[in-house]
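Researcher: Here's the sequence for the chain we discussed earlier.
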Amino acid sequence: MARHSPETDGPASDVNLTNCDREPIHTIGRVQSFGALISMSSDWIVNHASVNVDQFIGIEAHDLIGRRLSDCLSAQALLLIRSRMPMLASPDAVERIFGVELAGNDKRFDLSLHLSGRSIVLEFEPHNDGHDTNYVNFVRPMVERISRAETSQKLCDDAARQMRNLIGFDRIMVYRFAEDGTGEVISESLKPGMESFKGLHYPASDIPKQARALYTRNLLRIIADVSDPGVPILPVVNPEGLPLDLSMSGLRAVSPIHLEYLANMGVQASLSISILKRGKLWGLFACHHETPRTLSYEVRTAAELFGQLFSFVLDQKESDEGREEQGRAQLLHDQLMAQLAEDASISDNFETIINGISSVIPYDGAVGWVEGKFESTGHTPTKEEFLGLVNFLNTTAASRVYHIDSLVKVFPPAAEFVDRAAGMLVLPVSRAPRDYIVLFRREIAKSVTWAGNPEKPVLQGKHGDRLTPRKSFEAWQQIVRNTSAPWQPPEIRAAEALRLTLLEVVLRMSDAALRDRAKAQEHQELLIAELNHRVRNILSLIGGLVEQSGTEARSISEFTHVVGGRIHALSRAHDLITREQWEPASARELIRIEAEAYLGANAEKVKIQGPDVHLRPKAFTAVSLVIHELLTNSAKYGALSEANGTVLIIFSQLPDGGMAIDWLETGGPPIQSPPLRRGFGSTIIERSIPYELSGRAELKFEVTGVSARFEIPAAHFDGFTNTIQEKTAALSTEKARPSLSGQALVLEDNLIIAMDAEDMLGSLGATEVFVAANVREALAILEEHSIQFALLDVNLGSETSEPVAEVLHARGVHFAFATGYGDSIDLAKRYSSVPVVKKPYDVASIEAALPG
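Model: Thanks. This is the structure I predict for it:
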């Protein structure tokens, strides 16, 4: 079967660079004889000329060397050439002029100008006076026709037909390069009776790198007659000993190897037009004709223009197809995100995920390896075999999809399971190299139709060890072992989209509030900033409480009571804000606790009207942040900073079932103008509810005081109730006050806190209180003394109080846990009947933990 290989010659002076340690295989500097060439210096002195130039302007080449161009061409032609010289703005620019009389003898020529180093190269060939058709005008309707193609494959098919109609060659092929440099004929238009080359593959060595580089610069290449020996350029080298660089020449001859190659195929004329996609060589229009065929410069220019416009249409079509692929991947993303619960893990939903992936990427087996858990389906390695593969996977890039169709080539132990998994596609589903979804494909005897043996690109021929055309052009079957079907570019792009989807599942699983990756970073920064902001506020608040309470108290004990009460109120509010797991909570209770924490005895200045609502966890957090900031600002600068100032908070129901919270300040300092500086607190007030709850927030600075309105969708609370139920520490029925007698134990690693607890237990009736800083000391005390009650700090730096709790529980001794965290603790969950005392301690909380 015959095959076409585009050029094998190099970029400069038509020298074959495949084996440069030998003499060039043909005369340096030749051009095809249907045109002529003159090279001149910048002062228009001729320094090179082709030997047949006298056929065109009547002057032999050796007589031209050293002469001025003005002595050879007419003044009108020279003026026209000079006028086009400024158009050569770049080193690879080529300017063309059609129908020029060079010598004033009524003979017209088509010219091209380009730069070659310090030389200006002028190429000319006879103008076809019998056809004055402007072929460039043909291009527009050609492009319109191919633009209607529905797919990129159909586009290439239509383009091959349109190109054949334009240039009249017997065979037009669209030749596409793969990432590894091999090529394939993907489309073809040919005259009836010719053998098809469509589907043939070509080794990368058929078109060397230097030839590919030239294709990106010089877009069109014609061989008008394979039998044309060409004519040399004189002199062979310039005074510096260098040949004339013909990289941008349209007449340059080609390697005898390539001419022999074409002749063996029965091809007598050839044309190649580069297809560039965003500056990179995507492929070629490779054109064959069974008889010599010279195309006019106008036709070649039109063909080159069509090739360039086709490149743009192809890029657009492939981009459209890429967006369609993204749409399918997005549809799968949406389906997976809808099917997986917020707390879902990849391993628990492995089957659902894998079934979804199969709709866009075919595979024979799949493995999930997430947090050390192995899940598999279909044809895959065993768990033991996969464990060896995991170490290899950790060496690949963790931030992108990895794919290979012959795993044995990079991981030799894969030979043990190549019958089940010859190729794989890996989707990392964690930021660190650890967790993966891996798709496998089984081994196939993959038949690739090569136009020649790709393992033998260099053979001994009459020109030496160079790229010699294979004499037999029968399709050669290469059977590839240890190899799976290749992963196609659309599949790889879909896999990358799925990787992002699975990463989003992982992020959502780790924190349900992080709905997508874009919000994750913003939400994290918001929380960090709020934490810093609140810590500073709390420290300032405590300082202010101490200072202000000193002016109110009449004795040390009263001072202690006032400061302690306010700090504990602040602690309770902080517990409500930072708690991670809770039931819907009362909005009134939230405001009451915040007001008591920051206003103390003046908390009654905050009035609440309307029905109560129980906010769900996410809404509770957002609203607590907003109320905190409003109360703080009002206490500093607004109505609550004045003796007669008040705040009215109104709860109401919206027509759509949502709720509204109105904040009205009166009796405060008059507001002359809104504040110029907007701090982080204002950001929390205005953005928390819209951002977190998709609600609305409006903040106004009026003369009479600050007013605000917040609207919260109904999905974030459990409805309204007209029954106001305030939480209280008082018991519904009187109980006997617990009493403490005998010896007690305090396990606490902070000395100051331990001393406070010791004093409180003493005040509650303990005859003797032992203090231990660690588990070892506590166990020693238990061995020597008969302890009646113990207060155990849960976290003791590098250890917990669990060993002590086990001993006390075994002996039947009453004890309580102590913690500084507002959330529940695992150790306390194991002893569900044991009370938990939250820090900072007070007598009432310890007393409530004593046995009744």
